[in-house]
Design a protein that fits this description.
The chain is mainly alpha-helical. Helix content is about 85%, strand content about 0%.
Length: about 90
């Protein structure tokens, strides 16, 4: 039973990571908007692009990680998981 969940966990993380990233970005931007931090960036003549660069890089890193995981480990884990099903 423990082995089944050990091989099921990466699949669940793979399925929930995009939703978790979306919620994290929306909460972060909501809090920044509430505290007028986005206005502060505008007042200092910063563009939106430098403020969005960390979010875009984190999204890119998540996408690359998911693609690599999908091509390498997840097929192996799914095979092992189905071996433990009844």
């Amino acid at each position: 039973m423990v082995d089944y969940f050990r091989y099921l966990a990466p699949y669940l993380l793979y399925q929930l990571a995009p939703l978790g990233a979306l919620v994290a970005v929306l909460v972060t931007l909501g809090i920044m908007s509430k505290n007028n931090e986005i206005r502060g960036h505008q007042g200092q003549r910063h563009q939106y692009v430098p403020s969005a660069v960390p979010l875009l890089l984190a999204g890119l890193a998540l996408a690359v990680t998911m693609i690599v995981l999908d091509d390498t480990y997840l097929p192996y884990a799914n095979q092992r998981k189905t071996r433990f099903t009844i």
